[in-house]
Design goal:
alpha/beta, five-stranded mixed beta sheet, 2 domains, 9 helices, Nucleotidyltransferase, domain 5
């Protein structure tokens, strides 16, 4: 049975699947990334995991996978198949596509984790049927991906969609990127957790607890939440002014707050637009499976295209 390997690498764990060319799920597995052992060990773990998945296909489906799709965090040079940098995993300039291709002898597609998740949301999830969408993941940081006619645009240098580093509060909080007042310093799950912990004096208070407190009417929580929503709306309006998406898909940990986030966010965006056409704002549909599903799509595209698109090699 012809199939592909889909592998999504996170900061602490890896999710993988064998996927038939019809999209059917044939096998799933998870492993630890092993980042505590250093970047070289992480690379070895990825290559070894892919090799084991290939062997599983040989044993159970009569042949090894026809291609691999791999999604990784950080800065990714998708056209050249290089993982340029990841603060969480500690690597620099790792030629992952070549390493996997040499080990397995099959085509390999490498993608940025958020853009790959956006690809899955666009084709299979909340953006299905939309010709243009913008996917935003509100996690430890904030990143996004602009989808156009079934693909996600990586940009000339692999930095497209980095909405978390739009400056929304000039002269504001310093960001590790070197700027001041970046969106992710105000509206990421990590930023909300930090603000809420400071407001409560409880170092263990997090964004999920803040959202629950907002729902119960806690005025301090409402203040923290409103500041985050206002900053997020400012960043999103900048993005929709530039990109004019039909659908705006919000995912990541902060989106799990549901209506506590989406109701004020929709209103905040509506109140800011002037000439722009407001997009439909919807929650992501695929949860933490999006990266793996997107990696499978990257691999499947390798088998159906003769050229090498920028985000779906």
């Amino acid at each position: 049975m012809r199939h592909v390997i889909a592998l999504d690498v996170g900061g602490t764990g890896m999710k993988a699947a064998l996927v038939g060319l019809d999209g059917g799920l044939l096998h799933q597995d998870r492993r630890a990334t092993g980042r505590d052992r250093g970047p070289e060990a992480v690379v070895d773990a990825i290559v070894g995991f892919a090799a084991d998945l290939y062997a599983h296909g040989e044993r159970h489906f009569g042949e090894g996978a026809a291609a691999v799709g791999l999604a990784v965090p950080g800065i990714v040079d998708e056209p050249n198949g290089v993982a340029v940098f990841s603060a969480n995993l500690g690597w620099r300039d790792v030629p992952l596509r070549a390493l996997l291709a040499d080990r397995l002898g099959i085509p390999v597609a490498l993608g940025h984790d958020v853009r790959t998740g956006g690809l899955a949301e666009g084709r299979l999830g909340a953006g299905k049927g939309a010709d243009r969408f913008f996917f935003v993941a509100l996690g430890t940081g904030i990143a996004g991906g602009f989808g156009l006619d079934g693909r996600v645009e990586p940009g000339a240098h692999g930095f497209a969609g980095e909405i978390g580093h739009i400056v929304v509060r000039p002269q504001g909080v310093p960001c590790p990127c070197g700027q001041y007042g970046c969106l992710e310093r105000y509206a990421s799950a990590a930023a909300v957790s930090e603000a809420w912990a400071k407001a409560t004096g409880d170092p263990d208070a997090d964004a999920a607890h803040c959202a629950r407190s907002v729902a119960s009417g806690d005025p301090n929580a409402v203040r923290v939440w409103e500041e985050a929503v206002d900053a997020l709306a400012d960043g999103l309006v900048t993005a929709l002014t530039l990109l004019d998406p039909r659908v705006l898909i919000i995912g990541g940990g902060l989106a799990e707050a549901g209506d506590v986030l989406f109701e004020p966010l929709r209103e905040a965006v509506r109140s800011r637009v002037t000439f722009q056409k407001p997009p439909t704002i919807v929650p992501a549909a695929l949860g933490d499976t999006a990266g793996c599903l997107g990696a499978g799509l990257l691999a499947q595209d390798l088998l159906t295209t003769t050229t090498t698109p920028e985000v779906m090699p």
